Amino acid sequence: MLTLDLLLVLVGTALFAVLAWAAVESVAEEEPRAAKRLFALALMAPLPFVAVTAVPGDAGPFTGVSLLAMTALGAIALVIPTVSKHRAERDTPSRRIDERDIMFSRARLVPGSDRFEAYYAEKPEHREADDRFRAQPGLLRKGSAHYDPFMFAAADASFETIEELHSMVDGPVASERESPDPDAISEFIKGWTVKLGAVDVGITELRDYHKYTTVGRGDQYGQPVRLDHRFAIALTVEMAKEMIDRAPRGPTVMESAQQYMTSGAIAVQVAQFIRNLGYPARAHIDGNYRVVCPLVARDAGLGEIGRMGLLMTPRLGPRVRLGVVTTDLPLVPDGREPEHSVLDFCSICEKCADVCPSEAIARGDRVEIDGALRWQIDSEACFTYWSKIGTDCARCMSACPYSHPDNPMHNAVRLLIRNSSPARRMALAADDYLYGRRPPPSDVVGWIDVNGES
Length: 454
Fold this sequence. Notes:
Elements: H1 4-28, H2 32-44, H3 47-51, H4 59-79, H5 103-106, H6 114-122, H7 127-134, H8 149-165, H9 182-195, E1 200-205, E2 231-238, H10 241-244, H11 250-276, E3 281-284, H12 293-299, E4 304-305, E5 311-312, E6 320-327, H13 340-349, H14 351-355, E7 367-369, E8 372-374, H15 379-389, H16 395-399, H17 408-419, H18 421-435
Antiparallel strand pairs: 1-2, 2-6, 3-6, 4-5, 7-8
């Protein structure tokens, strides 16, 4: 027979088991602070349930029932679905972006060149800010704050490989055309893309606002973007957490470059496959885009655009790199199911803004920019910091609560966050307590540290 005392002991034991399991998982994740605090909670949480069984007289049962009732109500509050305050709506930009205006394009302008002079004659408002980043050593350059000849050479090796892939983003189409069923070929492409190394894949109709207006990099600089494909395939690849946790040091730019290369290689293969079927297809990879990848990926159902301006994916948060393939091959779009809870969480979290060394991440609610509600980062401040330290920073990515590993413990938290507003606030408080409001970078040790300086 299940008595009140036995029920109290069982609930206390269950709490101990869950918290102890989470502590062990944290040890495996090399999160010592979280592990210590979870072990302490595992020991303390059962105490009230056990202690109340020793309370004499009528006070014992009354206290026990009250404790169980409060526990049950708390659990119910975390699982009952609630309506999100922030809606994923009015988030379609009213104008297209000129790729020449993005920081990666402006950084490639060579002072004194005709292209340099022409750009700043047309956009003089950018000159002062750009002079500030040009006064710094530069991304992956000697003299930057986190310069490491070995880590930076490794990153350069990945970027140089990507350059070799640029000649393969487009190509001739087979003269014989296959006629596959759109549903079947869509599933084939998604399954094969995952097999090639992608985490998630989605399909959307290619929309006008997905496309840049003007090419901003490469041999076609300054030419209008001409892309009339019907569909876009978006894919994500994972950035290793153990590398990103060392942000803003060299390992983060090593990982960033490697995953740009991985996503690019997958996109190139998928595009070539489609051309082999007799349909035009173009891969969009690092340094050779014609589309704004986060918008394409969002509309393909892979996530939402968060506070830091990156795609927030369900399983890995912003800890991904993107690739896109556009094509006329008849496909079946997945459609977008807006994830309002991500916007809710980003609105209350602000950890990325707290840790941003350049203070480039906006606080507060989204504002309307070009007809769309969004958070706008200060890209000039961000890139100037990159140019100072020599890496692409990623402190925002490493601190984001959504960036935790894709495992049962963190996925349970993600499920609660998706479902309940109280759970979002509880999860944020727990993340601050376990990992810190401003989690420090992990040490650069082991095989990465060739100089043995860390």
